[in-house]
Amino acid sequence: MTDHLDPGYAAAANRRQPPRGGDRLTLALGLVVLGVVLGVSVAHAAGGESDYTGEQNEALAGVRDAEQRSDALELERRSLTDQVDSARSSSLLSAEDGSAVLDSLHRLEFAAAVQSVEGPGIEVTVSEPPARTDLSDASMPRRGSAEAVVLDRDLQVLVNSLWVSGAEAVAVDGVRIGPGVTIRQAGGAMLVDNRPVFSPYTVSAIGSPDLLETRFSVSDAYLRLSAIAQLYGVGFELRADDALDMPAAPARSITVARQGSDR
Questions:
Q1: How far is CA 187 from CA 144, 145, 152, 156, 245, in A?
Q2: pTM for the complete prediction?
Q3: Is 82 left (phi over 0), alpha (psi -120 to 50) or beta?
Q4: What's the confidence (pLDDT) of residue 32?
Q5: What does residue 3 show for φ and ψ, rounded to 5 degrees?
Q6: Rounded-to-integer distance, Cα 168 and Cα 113, Å
Q7: What is residue 119's predicted lDDT score, i.e. its pLDDT?
Q8: Confidence of residue 40 (pLDDT cuts 50, 70, 90)
Q9: pLDDT for 80-89, tens place per residue?
């Protein structure tokens, strides 16, 4: 109880001798080899990081080029669509009963959202909460791009509520909502008509601003988004606009199936 140190420790300390010249040379050579290995590893790591950065920049440049080509094709498509509409209108107006046919086509095209429209309405902006600066706070849930606070079903409920509130045309971040257009998430990306949109999400609705605001303010979507804004810090803003402009949605071919006759 009085001897707290095992005698073996003292004996080993007494036997320990200072390193001899050969041991010192071996130690020095070992340190040199270790330094060379570490230097080569650092050089390889720096070279690999440089290659990764170059590949990343090349991929980003390819994405930007694809986006520019897509925008140019979209402008060309709109221009060609306007030319086709103009030629069709001229042909129908010169024919008998062509005016009635043209009016019917305009009503159908408006319902299918294949006509560009403009007019007064409201805009609802929903944005992801700002990133936290204190990452050491473990009490708050960590959210990445794949764990967004604003989900596709939130935008779906919002769009449906605007329709019910009296909207005549709806668009999400400039993408027109029409028959066959979906709002969904794929991983961390929000897709509207298979086109990526990013926070803040601006949902525009053309119609009577007073009527839209009054009806939407008592809808389930308004209560849902208000609750999300209070709980998670999501941005939620509603404002009226006297001049909204929405592009036409792309026309899609519809295949109709009919039951065959029994033989």
A1: 11, 8, 11, 17, 30
A2: 0.63
A3: alpha
A4: 85
A5: -100, 95
A6: 10
A7: 94
A8: confident
A9: 877 887 887 8
Residue type present at position 244:
L
Q: Is the peptide bond before 19 cis (omega within 30 degrees of 0)?
A: no
Nearest-5° Cα angle at 186, 180 to 188: 135
- Dist. CA 192–CA 155, nearest whole Å: 10
Beta strands 195-197 and 117-127: pairing type?
Answer: unpaired
| Tokens describing residue 22 | 């050969």
- The span from the CA of 144 to the CA of 48, in Å, is 26
Place of tokens 């090349």: 58
**What's at 222, amino acid-wise?**
Y
Q: How much is the pLDDT for 133?
A: 56
pLDDT of amino acid 142: 42
For residue 252 the two structure tokens come to 């899609």
Joined tokens for residue 224: 């849902």
Provide the pLDDT confidence category of residue 138 given band limits of 50, 70 and 90: very low
Apex 179 CA angle, 70 and 227, nearest 5 = 90
The two tokens of residue 228 are 């999300």
CB 198 within 8 A of CB 190: yes
Side-chain-side CA neighbours of residue 159 (13 Å): 24
At 108, which amino acid appears? L
Top-confidence residue, 100 or 246: 246
Which of 146, 154, 149, 186 lies closest to 172, judged by CA? 154
Residue 140: its pLDDT value, please? 44
